[in-house]
Design goal:
The protein is mostly beta strands. The chain has 3 helices and 13 strands; from the N terminus they run ααβββαββββββββββ. Strands 3, 4, 6, 7, 8, 10, 11 and 12 form an 8-stranded mixed sheet that branches. The chain has a 5-stranded mixed sheet with strand order 1-5-2-13-9, with no helix packed on it. The longest helix is centred in the N-terminal third of the chain and has 13 residues. The radius of gyration is 17 Å and the shape is globular.
């Protein structure tokens, strides 16, 4: 999270025409997993999540509380965006983009892509129901890069996906977010110890990637595509981050969207 997608993409494209393979370019900012903030326990509502507004079956939402141990996202019951937060800090690890006011209101479930500028449609291709957890780069404790460490306890959005079900999620301008299928294992920092998806939504050009930095086995089948950059797919085999210093793929580890919209699709395929 915080990768300079435009620079990474440009470096990758340049490498394809070079006569000799250059050294892999290091992104301006390494992935958030390098930060290990001390998790701050947040308060989690005891109420179960409201019914999904997408194609997720409402009956499967009844298992949210048991699977998440009561962790319900700050935006779970929201049906509209809040006020955007003005950015601050220099680009990089210390950059603070929009995380919504109230916190988490930059991310909402919607019925369809519609006229939303930034969306991600999540689809569960597994034979079991799963929980998707989406968090902001800035955590609910208002610290940069703490969102991943706090996500298993205090996060932005959680929802259930039944087998074969899909859910569209919309994002406000200048949101830096990541997501993962909920799992029981966590890293020393507190983050989910699995493959993540990451995205940055800005008018000047958005970006997305699959990150296996927290998954040493690289055995989770997640695939991210977009309408705007159909030539670039990010998955466990192409255009992804294997470690925080080893990007894989012709786009140098990440996919860049040059347009001022981003219409993503993410397949949550599970462990293989």
């Amino acid at each position: 999270m915080g990768v300079d997608w435009a620079s990474a993409y440009a470096a990758g494209q340049a490498s394809k025409t070079a006569s000799a393979a250059p050294a892999v370019a290091t992104p301006a900012v390494v992935a958030a997993v390098k930060a290990s903030p001390t998790p701050v326990a947040g308060s989690s509502p005891s109420a179960a999540a409201s019914s999904s507004s997408g194609s997720s079956s409402s009956s499967t939402n009844n298992i949210v509380d048991s699977l998440l141990g009561g962790v319900i996202g700050a935006a779970n019951k929201l049906t509209s965006f809040g006020s955007p937060v003005s950015p601050s800090g220099a680009l990089g690890d210390n950059y603070r983009g929009n995380y919504g006011s109230p916190y988490g209101s930059n991310v909402i479930k919607v019925d369809s892509v519609g006229d939303h500028a930034y969306t991600n449609t999540f689809k569960n291709t597994q034979s079991k129901s799963i929980i998707v957890n989406i968090w902001n780069k800035v955590g609910p404790d208002m610290q940069v890069l703490s969102g991943s460490a706090l996500a298993p306890k205090d996060t932005t959005l959680t929802f259930t996906l039944a087998p074969g079900a899909s859910q569209v999620v919309a994002f406000q301008e200048n949101s830096q977010i990541a997501w993962a299928e909920v799992c029981s294992e966590t890293t020393p920092s507190g983050a989910f110890k699995t493959t993540w998806g990451e995205a940055n939504f800005v008018k000047s050009g958005s970006g997305y990637d699959v990150s296996a930095i927290n998954n040493a086995n690289n055995n989770y089948a997640m695939t991210i595509t977009s309408n705007e950059a159909p030539q670039c797919t990010s998955s466990r085999t192409e255009n992804f981050w294997l470690t925080d210093s080893k990007p894989i793929g012709t786009s140098d580890g990440s996919c860049f969207i040059a347009q001022n919209t981003a219409t993503l699709q993410t397949i949550m395929g599970g462990t293989i």
